[in-house]
Amino acid sequence: MRLANRVAVITGGASGMGQATVMRFLAEGANVVIADYNVTTGEATAAQARRAGFADTVSFVKTDVASEADIASMLAHAVEQFGRLDILFNNAGVGGAIGPLTETSVEDWDYTFDVLAKGVFLGMKHAARILRAQGEGGAIINTASVAGLSGDGGPLAYSAAKAAVINMTRSAAVELAPDRIRVNAICPGFIATPLASGGTDLERTRQSFATSQPWPDYGRGEHIAGAALFLASDDAEFVTGEALVVDGGLTAAGPELSKKFPRVSARNSKVSGITKGSTGEPPHLRRL
User: Fold this and answer.
1) CA distances (Å), 71 to each of 23, 119, 261, 274, in order?
2) Nearest CA to 169 among 123, 109, 107?
3) Quick one: which of 205, 192, 225 has its CA closest to 87?
4) CB-facing half-sphere around the CA of 82: CA atoms within 13 A
5) Vertex 283: Cα angle to 107 and 146 (nearest 5)
6) Do residues 164 and 185 touch, judged by C-beta distance below 8 A?
7) Alpha-carbon gap, residue 196 to 170, rounded angstroms
8) Of 39, 143, 168, 227, which has the maximum CB count within 10 A?
9) How far apart are CA 123 and CA 88, in angstroms?
10) What's the pLDDT tens digit per position in 20-79?
11) Contact 92, 12 (CB under 8 A)
12) What is the pLDDT of residues 82-104, one digit of tens each?
């Protein structure tokens, strides 16, 4: 098992890519803390893991990744529960602000950056303190996006936040390299998850995503879990500061989100507001 006796914390671990990574890491021998804002899905994921035979190696803690106190408490929980920390997967996310630039409120911008960018910063900050103190290195993985690599891969605020994650990853990798702490990002393409579907018609999202890139299948959480496993394992010992694209050839062809999904593109959008993904909180949208 590639992660035997390692201790991993996975934010946004209660659904989608995070949940798939929780189950994969457990199967590879890790002790896993599921951190999520949504208590209902968090406890359900922990229960699922226990039924699968991981009762002694899984724990759930409610976490708001935009809160420094919550991040510190989350990582302290991992150390108290399992004795150490080896891996942090900063994966929590929301759709965030959508709609035209001229209609985006400061409040929606701030919420988007609080979760997607500040949450990653806080996770790296506090994980690095623990990993340095242990003196044995470690791995930090951040969920970015193909939206952070182009101008037409996602909504403006979301894309800007994900671009920030990519550069934070590179900067932190350079700073933490002397401590043998590897820092990498994953840039998913169109992955069919509850967040991507807005918590509604997941099957419709799968059908739409299956034809959205050169590879003839939709992206699954398990695809991201496999990439995270590689970056967390000793197989990636010499890999740091990278943004690993996992997108079925999407960026190779060019995202062109506005052409593929005109209803959610800012070019054509008739709504503006904020979406909060799988947090359990409803979106707040208004018609233009």
Assistant:
1) 22, 8, 35, 23
2) 123
3) 225
4) 25
5) 80
6) no
7) 26
8) 143
9) 8
10) 999 999 999 999 999 999 999 999 999 999 999 999 999 999 999 999 999 999 999 999
11) yes
12) 999 999 999 999 999 999 999 99
CA distance 187 to 223: 11
pTM, rounded to two decimals: 0.91
- Which residue in this structure is represented by tokens 């470690």? 138
Pairing relation of β-strands 138-143 and 181-188? parallel
- The residue ranges of every structural domain in the chain are 7-287
DSSP state of 6: -
The answer to whether the CB of 272 falls within 8 A of the CB of 103 is: yes
Which residues are catalytic, by number? 158
CB 277 within 8 A of CB 195: yes
Report the run of H or E that residue 132 belongs to, with start and end. Answer: helix 119-134
DSSP class per residue in 239-287 = --S-EEEESTTHHHH---HHHH-TTTSTTT-SEEEEE-TTSSPPPEEEE
Q: If we measure between CA atoms, which residue out of 1, 124, 24, 22 comes closest to residue 71?
A: 124
Among 103, 107, 94, 96, which residue's Cα sits nearest to residue 266?
Answer: 103
The topology (CATH level 3) of 7-287 is: Rossmann fold (3.40.50)
Alpha carbon 70 to its chain's center: 17
Determine the angle formed by the axes of helices 221-232 and 16-27, rounding to 10 degrees: 50
Q: Which residues pair with 184 in a beta bridge?
A: 141
Report which of 191, 198, 212, 210 is spatially closest to residue 257, judged by C-alpha positions: 212
